[in-house]
Design brief:
4-stranded antiparallel beta sheet; 7-stranded mixed beta sheet; elongated
């Protein structure tokens, strides 16, 4: 029902920056929230940042002050600006979209993930 196109991952040195993008398309009536999760090898997937339809945001403590989530409602696109990157930020980052595909049906969709490697 919903298709996500993710981009922006890559290799960066500690202290560097990246910007991740995730564009949602398909059968979308409206979007409740968009979020970014990440999963490092051997670890559970964790919420990094979330932005609601109203624009409210929340962040994991480990990234607060360094990462910024934003959204372009007209494009159904969510961004994650990653600044002051640390090696522990290395993970596969996943876009997550909670959408209403009709007035009554809610759908939660995961992107394919994009790799972020922070290493010197």
């Amino acid at each position: 029902q919903v298709q996500l196109v993710e981009s922006g991952g890559g290799l960066v040195q500690p202290g560097g920056s990246l910007r991740l993008s995730c564009a949602a398309s398909g059968s979308i009536f409206s979007i409740n929230y968009m979020a970014w999760y990440r999963q490092a090898p051997g670890k559970q997937r964790e919420l990094v940042a979330r932005i609601t339809d109203s624009g409210s945001t929340n962040y994991a403590d480990s990234v607060k002050g360094r990462f910024t989530i934003s959204r372009d409602n007209a494009k159904n696109t969510v961004y994650l600006q990653l600044n002051s990157l640390k090696p522990e930020d290395t993970a596969v980052y996943y876009c997550n979209v909670d959408a209403f595909v009709s007035a009554l049906r809610r759908f939660n969709y995961w992107g394919q993930g994009t790799q972020v490697i922070v290493s010197s």
